[in-house]
Task: structure prediction
Amino acid sequence: MKVVLTRKIPAPAEELLKNAGFDVSVSPKPRVLNKEELKNFIVGADAVLSLLTDKIDGEVMDAAGEQLKIIANYAVGFDNISLPDAMSRKIAVTNTPGVLTEAVAEHTFALILAVAKRLIEADKYVRSGGYQGWEPELLIGTGLMGKTLGIIGAGRIGSYVAKAGNGFGMKIIYQDVHPNPEFEKETGAQMVDLMTLLSNSDVVTIHVPLLPETKHLISSGQLGMMKKTAILINTSRGPVVDEAALVEALKNGVIGGAGLDVFEDEPMLASGLTELKNVVLTPHIASATIEARSAMSKIAAENIIAVLSGKEPLNPAQ
Result:
């Protein structure tokens, strides 16, 4: 059976798949394949190990052929794959949940600290030769002790971020579609509505999936509800935040700062975003730890092995 990987990924996926007896092909291109390239590359595949950047609809699935049994997404999210198209063709779709929690939560707090402490500005200042000695008002940031951390989405990652917030002495409030009593017990968090969260938080961090109802969850109206000193962090999915509205809010002092690891139209950035000093930008690397990426690789391969062996997928996309 033929398995294709649309991009080279960390071990151990390729080795596991070869040891299972599959014919494995990895795209030699060090970039995202365009639609025609993707269609041509997966012809004859029984399984596709895809990335979040691969847009896979019915047309792409049909290019593989009727023998295609599974698309294993190397990601927690799977909005890049048309589930209705996959379902109608009886193709399993899987993801890699539960292994990114710590990595993404750690990166989230790294962004919070970088923005609050103005670390990127300070680093550039020193490197450029601007540092001539200690000054009482040089690059003053803000402290976290006693401040309010507002978490949108109290799932695994949001819960871990809350625990880190506890460690910094922050008050935790959250908004989610359902109450989370266990989360509240562990972190002392209080559930509030979105308007209350935005207007009362010193730091707002987003941990929701990209769904029709979460696209532009944060836009100009919501940004206007936030404190002028507030920090917005997004390590979830780019389109959850209206990026153009965020640029205007940062530019005009509507909020104090932002930290982004994801962008609305990756890898493109909203006009003016890179010119702002009060935003820290990272290139979608929140899960980029050896531990997390290796675990994702293993899970994706194990799902393929299970399905091609006639078993049920281990992590079906919901």
Notes: Residues 228 and 254 are 5 Å apart (CA to CA). The chain has a mean pLDDT of 97. The first helix runs from residue 13 to 19. The longest strand covers residues 148-152.
